[in-house]
Amino acid sequence: MIKIGIIGGAGYTAGELIRVLGNHPEAEIDFVYSTSSAGKPVHEIHHDLYGETDLMFTSEINQNVDLMFLCLGHGKSKAFLENGSISSAVKIIDLSHDFRLAENSQFQDRKFIYGLPEFQKDAISTAGNIANPGCFATAIQLAILPLADAKLLNDDLHVHAITGSTGAGQSLSATTHFSWRNNNVSVYKAFTHQHLLEIGETVTTEQPGFDHAINFVPVRGNFTRGIFSTVYTKTDLSLNQLTELYKSFYDDTVFTHISEQPIHLKQIVNTNKCLLHLEKHGDKVLITSIIDNLVKGASGQAVHNMNLLFGLKENHGLQLKPILY
Ligand SMILES: NC(=O)c1ccc[n+]([C@@H]2O[C@H](COP(=O)([O-])OP(=O)(O)OC[C@H]3O[C@@H](n4cnc5c(N)ncnc54)[C@H](OP(=O)(O)O)[C@@H]3O)[C@@H](O)[C@H]2O)c1
Residue 58 is part of a domain; what is its CATH number? Predict the structure, then answer.
């Protein structure tokens, strides 16, 4: 069994990680560290885990584990590793932005590999530490990776993506308050969202010299989970050629599928899947890409990375079914 520690236990991604790992045949949660909830049962904060686990939040960190997941906010993972003297024998999967970009990927004696399995599975399999991708970044990269890999991104990309409120974490804010969010939709960080940086690094690795704009308009949705994104760009390829390209690129991947039917969010919520759908309109391809922000966009992808790091079957613990109605 892989012995696991979870840091930032009271947050949304930690709760989702505990839920997914609870059904993993080769992983065992050793401790769930929490600054806010030490001493309380885990199910007192993560109510969906009532009856699922007797784990308690703790203020003690056991160094004698194989892997720690850091479920901390921006800047907090770096601070945690700076202050925590975690043994370099312990592998780290970090869910924050702190180590995703190449310029931040070396920290102390740790090298972090960007953990998007569809992009670099082999590098992940031999890594010591993983920087788990952002949720929007996951949905958008999976929408465009086959075109970038074939060096066929030849024009500006236009991206709209709408996210559920859990994407913002468990802290209450003006824009996650029920009265504001319910029955409401709004744009934020248009053209400037921080995930553009990691998307840009992947695209230029796959297609060196790419110098077109990625125009990204993120939208806050009035639902709790999921990301529904559309990307369109000009292409000379026919729909048949595009479908062939995408199917062949994702042929040996476990969680990304090309749907010939139009797709909708309920098909992927609670799963580690990404569904893609392609349409051709005149000289443009429209790619729809959908994921669960907390699973494929965070904790499920983190467990997928763990499976790769430890040489396990990729879908161990991740055979999750959505709820349609
Ligand atoms: N939510 C998503 O859909 C999503 C998707 C992809 C990536 N991510 C990234 O994953 C990380 C965790 O996200 P999340 O949604 O789980 O966040 P969250 O719900 O806000 O939880 C973060 C946890 O960090 C801990 N923490 C420790 N020190 C803290 C401090 N000084 N201030 C605030 N919190 C502190 C808290 O847990 P304790 O009280 O137990 O210590 C808190 O619950 C973030 O970096 C986020 O960007 C999130």
Answer: 3.40.50.720
What is the value of pTM for the model shown? 0.97
The alpha carbon of 11 and the centre of ligand 1 are apart by a number of angstroms equal to: 5
In a domain, 11, yes or no: yes
User: Quick count: other Cβ atoms within 10 Å of Cβ 138?
Assistant: 29
| Ligand 1 within 6 A of CB of 36 | yes
Alpha-carbon distance of 295 to 300, in angstroms, equals 4
Query: Is the distance from CB of 183 to CB of 144 less than 8 angstroms?
Result: no
Answer yes or no: 135 catalytic.
Answer: yes
How many angstroms separate the CA atoms of 14 and 269, rounded?
A: 17
* CA 276/CA 289 separation, integer angstroms: 5
Does ligand 1 come within 6 angstroms of the Cβ of 256? no
β-pair type (256-258, 106-107): unpaired
CATH of the domain at 238: 3.30.360.10
Tell me: do 270 and 150 sit in the same domain. yes
Containing structural domain, residue 86: 2-133+296-309
Residue the block writes with tokens 């031999």: 126
- The CA distance from 297 to 138, in Å, is 6
Distance CA 181, CA 70 (A): 28
Per-residue model confidence as pLDDT tens digits over 90-111: 999 999 999 999 999 999 999 9
292-308, pLDDT tens digit by residue?
999 999 999 999 999 99
* Residue 288, strand partner residues: 230, 277
In contact, 268 and 256? CB cutoff 8 Å: no
Q: Are residues 23 and 58 in the same domain?
A: yes
Ligand 1 contact, 31 CB (< 6 A): no
Count of domains observed in the chain: 2
Residue 85 scores a pLDDT above 90: no
